[in-house]
Amino acid sequence: MSAVWPAELADGDVLLRPIRLRDQHAWREVNRRNRDWLRPWEATIPPPPPDGPVAQRPTYRQMVRHLRAEAHAGRMLPFVVEYQGRLAGQLTVAGITWGSMCSAHVGYWVDAAVAGRGVMPTSVALAVDHCFRTLGLHRVEVCIRPENVPSRRVVEKLGFREEGLRPRYLHIDGAWRDHLVYALTAEETGDGLLARWHRSRPGTRSAGAAE
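^ that's the sequence the OP posted. Answer follows.
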């Protein structure tokens, strides 16, 4: 992973770069403004078993240190999303598995203030192209609550296949929630998701990707 991480991926006004400890102020400010927007889709910690220890949410610094350690171990790509030079969200490629599987899954969130501007489809396209073309992965999944229509539209615009339902898949907003599975394999992406995304938006063109 040392050859492909850290990485910066860019297209137009959108930049994906590694999350940093010094992002704390901007990250907290965006999260604070978006509490109601993000709460229905955010992972939560399930109740502990009887007499078991109560798990605590990590601090920002603990989260970043964990993400960076996982990145250096080759299991994760933890990006923040910048739009027009400002922190506007987060995208994480996680569960990177090699061997016979060569797969990963992608999770993301975006500031409501920039939703609808193509920020997240561009970000997902950049990340998935990086996974297939630079890392050499074969399959990428995105799991989304059925009720999260905006997030489903992101992957549907990029041509992800809906594969089915995973009942009670993740603990979200205080309960175990069903998730729809969307997936792509490298053979299905042609000349790349970023190129596909730009073709679907007449009048736009790529500024290229930097790694």
